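W.,

You were right to be curious about this one. When I first looked at the sequence I had no strong expectations either way, so I just let the prediction run and decided to look at it fresh. Below is the sequence, 273 residues in total, followed by the output.
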Amino acid sequence: MTLLKHFGFYLFFISTTTLAQVGISTPNPQGTFHVDGNKNNSQSGIPSADQMADDFVVTKTGNVGVGTLSPSVKLDISTSGTPASPVAGIKITDGQQGKSKVLTSDENGVGSWKRQSLELVVGTMGAGYNLHFVSDFFYSQTGSSITLPPGKWLVTVNLLAVNNQNAVLDADDYIWFRSTFSDSQLTASKSPDIIGTADKVSGMLQGPVPANALKYNIANGQVVINNQSQTAKTYWLIVGTAEVIGSPNPSVYLDRLGGSTWGENIISAVPIQ
């Protein structure tokens, strides 16, 4: 009897080693290591969805499946949930769990529960640019910038438009200006990372402005920037491509447009998607 037991064990060992599959509570393993929790799998063929709901499998590629025998990633969890009746498939109790918290990761990919918060990136405002009341087709650097990590960002620009102190403008004197972002402080061309045709934030200032008076307006808008590189990237605010109506003196300009002088000026961004 003892000899038969040893012989049977030997045959089982040879079989599982040769096939490189181990099944627990199932004679029909579907992976390198397969556990049928409820012992309800069929003797042959692929188990049904109901049968595999209580199964655990490790494939030859090292993927782990819970409730599924075909894990497509390193850990693939499938429950009986549907959009109408969802069933939770993961629970992590690390001491930081709590209602309405989200699972976030640090720079090394280590996850933990955190309260939901909006990630906001704020730019650095430079000296600005004196944009003269002259029609042109060019952009100029403001020295202002924002540095964005990899990913897609909704970038908001808020700019104060104000004439220089000694300006005099008639009622029909008018300037329309545009702003966007460049990839480099050394160039003044639009970054290809800006998505879509809504690629500018524009504004205007119109007379009349009497001598030694100031007139103000605000340009506000948003562009979408997709940093597809693997590292943080700096985008530089550029202004220009002005359109001028009337006959203003060319010495009139928008004072330090896009610069840190004016507290209304800000560049900020939040991640999207």
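Here's what jumped out at me. Helices lie at 2-19, 49-52. And, maybe more interesting for your project: The radius of gyration is 32 Å.

Coffee later to discuss?

I.
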